[in-house]
Amino acid sequence: MTLDGEDDPAAQLPRPQSLMFSFLGIYVLHRGVAVYSGSVIDVFARLNVSEEAVRSTLARMVKRNLLTRHRRGRKVYFGLTPHAADVLKDGRRRVWETGAVNRDWDGTWTLVGFSLPDSRRSTRHDLRSQLIWNGFGLLQNGLWIAPGEKDVTDLIASLELGDHVTVLTAGAFKPTETADLVRKAFDIERIAGRYRAFLTQWDVPRPLPDAPDDLARQLLLHTDWLQLVRQDPHLPAEHLPPDWPAIRAEQVFQTLAREYETRAAEHAAAILDELPV
Questions:
Q1: CATH level 2 (architecture), domain 109-171
Q2: CA angle at residue 86 from 137 to 25, to 5 degrees?
Q3: For the purposes of burial, counting CB atoms within 10 Å of the CB of 241, is it exposed (0-12), middle (13-18) or buried (19 or more)?
Q4: What letters, b where the CB count within 10 A reaches 16 and e where it falls short, cover 189-206?
Q5: Which class in CATH covers the domain with range 14-103+187-277?
Q6: Residue 140 pairs with which residues in a beta bridge?
Q7: 158 or 113, which is more confident
Q8: Which pLDDT tens digit goes with each residue over 170-204?
Q9: Do the domains spanning 14-103+187-277 and 109-171 agree at the CATH topology level?
Q10: Domain regions of the chain by residue span
Q11: Whether the predicted pLDDT of 19 surpasses 90
Q12: pTM of the complete model
């Protein structure tokens, strides 16, 4: 990703809300503070995100019960709701604990089967989207699988599916081979392509040389990486190619994250106006 997109017409900055989640996860979560909207605008100006886009993003996140407003004088500060804190904690777990490479798989698959009438076509679409987001792949018509044990209770309840869905855990037995399940249910080349694109952007001597400082690089790096691991079904490493690009990509992310951390924090401290909450 380039900062301005001119070097690559297909390149686009992450959506402002994705960048906002990265910013909040690094500089607000677990700190007991709310941040002044004006200082958030100053941070996002480093990413070429307009004031209008920042204010619109903050307003939408308030409506979605992700942020709360706090006033001090004429200033408006934004803090996290418990729901937002849970979302950000999940993102942190995916980045720093779950990671990109599944080396601990125990051979268990979670299976989700469903059959919905055409009258619930919209719900069927929402369910498929949520299953993909949660690491499931389509094995065959109406049957989705994901490695490991996945708790989809809240997902099913939120869509009011009830008896329309069956959830099981199982292992592969002959003549079914695990490698075949991985190949049939998941687009391995597409997943690998995302990691290769990340490496093209970040595995270079000076990533994003046009970025104004390491605060901008940090937020872009974390946003790129979180979007990547959220789209990764976390397939078992032993059934992936030995040169699986996620291995190198994770090393690059962790190295750069540590490299940017100190200077980014210094820039943030000089910019952010905070209110204890």
A1: 2-Layer Sandwich (3.30)
A2: 95
A3: exposed
A4: eebbebbbbbbebbbeee
A5: mainly alpha
A6: 143
A7: 113
A8: 999 999 999 999 999 999 999 999 999 999 999 99
A9: no
A10: 14-103+187-277, 109-171
A11: yes
A12: 0.88
